[in-house]
Amino acid sequence: MPVHEHSYASREEAAFHAYYTREHAALQQACAFHVALLQSILGKARHIDIAKVEGRVKERGECVRKFARKYRAALEENATPYEIHHYITDLIGVRVVCLYEDELDKVAQIVQSHYDVMDVTDKVSAAQATASSFGYMGLHLDLRLNAAQAAGAPSAAIAHQPLELQVRTIIQDSWSVLDHKIKYKKSIPAELRRRINVLSALFELADREFRQIRDATAAELLRAPDETDQPEPEPDSRASAPGSELNAFTFLKIAQHFFKDHDFDARKVDLFVDDVRAWLPGITRARLNSLMRETIGTVKRYKQFHEAQSPDSILTPFTVIRHCLYLGDKTVFRRALRTSAREAFEAWLQQD
């Protein structure tokens, strides 16, 4: 580099350092604003599982190194004046981590209702098109608040400051962390490169399998028999019917019939069904459905009474089902309610 170019580069680096120091607090504020906005937007989205939303302001030295690596040579070769901060579109970086690979595009589509998209880099497609390379995948979008959102931004700096949004699955995010720990990737021997490519492929396979397990689980739920409108079979046929024993899928079919607006948490469903089967080993889906149909009206009246008396104590659908089971068979399902809840319910039943 000629002396005058070196001098110019040094001045621009010094100017960028001053800019960074001056704007750092505003950049931090803007970063927090975008994280909160994206958490709010995506938190309202149905059928997308967001693991986390996090942000950072890019380190000053990292910005200078990126500019030098990507832009400086061409600009100085053409004698083009420059200011470094104009070329750093990811001074603010926000990362959205979701669970499934088919949610990446869904997140991008939702984001476009609040942001203008200036550029998109699809790391997934790039990795799939280059069999000999390795690295993390994901979707990168260069964004700026759209006119409607910018008008309501707390400051002009936030309104006009661009940001980079990275959208990854949780597995892609894990691979990224590990990938950055691999040293000397440009000079790595062929045998090690092959092993890393194999490892990268395993992560990609895990992403695909995780999504397919989700889809297969949803299909299993759809296949679960629907007995909510059918009478309970005769006692002699309960235990002998193949596939009649209660499980999480058949429980959900019944629970969603009685609580249409409730989104049942899968982990809680698993634990609750395990409890029910411990209280009555071999319980069938038809038996649960019958108990619910016989008692739900009474328990709903108790729910109204209880919540009117104690507004801070809400009976959740799981708690309602516990009361239904207890009312249906007070001996078998005595453990479904704690002593205090059982006594309160019995007191109401006597008055009712």
Task: Give an overview of the whole structure.
The chain has 352 residues and is α+β, with helices and mostly antiparallel strands. It has two domains: 3-210, Beta Polymerase, domain 2 (2-Layer Sandwich); 224-351, no CATH class. The chain is built from 14 helices and five strands. α10 packs across α12 (285-309) and α12 (285-309) packs across α13. The model is unreliable at 234-240 (pLDDT under 50).
Structural topology:
Layout: H1 3-43, E1 50-57, H2 60-77, E2 92-98, H3 104-111, E3 115-122, H4 123-129, E4 139-145, H5 147-151, H6 156-160, E5 163-169, H7 170-179, H8 190-223, H9 235-238, H10 248-258, H11 266-279, H12 285-309, H13 317-328, H14 339-351
Parallel strand pairs: 2-5
Antiparallel strand pairs: 1-2, 3-4, 4-5
Helix pairs in contact: 10-12, 12-13
What is the gist of this entry?
With 352 residues, the protein is of the alpha+beta class.
Keywords:
single chain, 352 residues, alpha+beta, Beta Polymerase, domain 2, 2 domains, 5-stranded mixed beta sheet, 14 helices, 11% strand, elongated
